[in-house]
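[Discussion] Sanity-checking designs against the backbone

I'm trying to build intuition for which residues belong where. Below is a structure token string of 189 positions. I'd appreciate it if someone posts a full sequence so I can compare it with mine line by line.
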């Protein structure tokens, strides 16, 4: 009778080790947080959107290619694209910046001619843009196009509004304030 009661206890270590193995197969996502401000090509992009943390996905494929964020620089035009990390809530899924006439580190207006900032939503129904003068700035702190590890790093902040003519769901704000933005991305050619 006592042996039957002890039998389940003998399997307890086996069951506990299975739980540890499943944690390794399906690791818990790390908490969403703003990435550190770096200048080493860390492929990071994050900001606060209306006070909530927004962090770009930063995963590598089996072939080692990083899916997001991306930065392209050619003939003075910079384009940065970032896609939201899946664990982040909120309506905004994508950031797109285009900045014309980038010559090196410095401060660039996001609503000047040749420059734009656009944020999109998962359902594609609402686009937010920085169209008004002085809507935001992009500060480039590193631009290396010729070194062993070409990359760009910087900060950004802006105010965007829903594009006119879009049917905005009630839970999507009419205006977004983006603060504490930072990125550090390897350049693509």
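Best answer:
Here's mine. Compare freely.
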């Amino acid at each position: 009778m006592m042996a039957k009661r002890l039998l389940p206890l003998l399997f307890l270590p086996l069951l506990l080790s299975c739980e540890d193995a499943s944690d390794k197969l399906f690791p818990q996502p790390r908490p969403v947080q703003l990435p550190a401000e770096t200048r080493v090509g860390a492929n990071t992009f994050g900001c606060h959107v209306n006070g909530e943390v927004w962090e770009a996905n930063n995963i590598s494929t089996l072939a080692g290619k990083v899916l997001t964020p991306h930065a392209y620089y050619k003939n003075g035009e910079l384009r940065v694209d970032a896609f939201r990390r899946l664990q982040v809530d909120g309506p905004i899924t994508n950031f797109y910046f285009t900045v014309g006439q980038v010559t090196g580190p410095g401060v660039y207006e996001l609503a000047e001619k040749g420059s734009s900032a656009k944020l999109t939503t998962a359902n594609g129904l609402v686009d937010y843009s920085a169209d008004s003068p002085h809507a935001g700035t992009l500060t480039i702190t590193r631009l290396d196009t010729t070194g062993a590890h070409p990359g760009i790093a910087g900060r950004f902040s802006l105010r965007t509004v829903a594009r006119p003519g879009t049917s905005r769901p009630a839970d999507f704000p009419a205006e977004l304030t983006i603060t504490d933005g930072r990125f550090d991305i390897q350049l693509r050619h």
